[in-house]
Amino acid sequence: MSPSAAAPVRMPRALRRTAVLDAAREVFVAVGYHAAGMDDIAVQAGVSKPVLYQHFPGKLDLYLALLDEGIDDLLAQSDAAVRSTSDNKQRVQATMQAYFAFVDDSRGAFRLVFESDLTNEPAVRERVDRANLEMARKIAAVIAEDTGLSDAQALILGSGLQGMAQVAARQWLQQGSGRLPRQEAADLIAALAWRGIRGFPLSHPPDASEETG
């Protein structure tokens, strides 16, 4: 037998795991956790079920791996946005842009994080709650650093901005083909958020017209 007729080279384990995750994400996003089957995921990934189970013991393990991946991606994007500038107005804009970009990702990871049909599962609920809290804490840390507000007050404000970004980005996506361009939509929400938060930072005191208005 010639070398060219030999059995195909096996895909490295790490690459096969990535292929399985990509396939599983497509299936979960398309039909939800409960309707998805391991058979469907194996077919989508182009692997056998035994190979699939070599990587993930069960469907929940596979789902949680994807959830962790999506949350890590969102937190990394948000952290980069917060650290991208020392100007707080630009930080708000960058954070909103990061949220809208995450929701607009064609892979649909945001659906696993924010629109899961498995939120009654404690492991899923814990991860989603952690993502929301970590996002709020990143924003609150900046607010607390630049203001005279307590950590508790800053966290409430951070949670408000985080919630605004999440709800607005999801609503924007649901508008379909008639929606605004992503950057324009994110900038609108950033402007709304900044008009509210700018009154708190000591480095951005209200001007005379705001004090007398």
Structure characterization notes:
- The protein has helices at about 15-30, 40-45, 50-55, 60-85, 90-105, 110-115, 120-145, 150-175, 180-195, 210.
- The chain has about 210 residues and is mainly α.
- It has 2 domains: about 10-55, Homeodomain-like (Arc Repressor Mutant, subunit A, Orthogonal Bundle), CATH 1.10.10; about 65-205, Tetracycline Repressor, domain 2.
- Helix 1 packs across helix 2, helix 5 runs antiparallel to helix 9 and helix 7 (about 120-145) packs across helix 8.
- The longest helix has 25 residues, at about 60-85.
- It starts with 12 loop residues before the first helix and ends with a helix.
- The model is unreliable at about 5-10 and about 210-213 (pLDDT under 50).
Topology overview:
Elements: H1 13-31, H2 38-45, H3 49-55, H4 59-83, H5 88-104, H6 109-114, H7 122-145, H8 151-174, H9 182-197, H10 208-212
Q: Strand share of the residues?
A: under 5%
- The SSE string, one letter per element, is HHHHHHHHHH
Oligomer: single chain
Mean pLDDT: 85
Question: What shape does the CA trace take?
Answer: elongated
User: What's the tally of helices?
Assistant: 10
Question: Any guess at the CATH architecture of the largest domain?
Answer: Orthogonal Bundle
Rounded Rg? 22 Å
Unreliably modeled segments: 4-9, 208-213
Brief summary of the model shown:
This protein has helices spanning 13-31, 38-45, 49-55, 59-83, 88-104, 109-114, 122-145, 151-174, 182-197, 208-212.
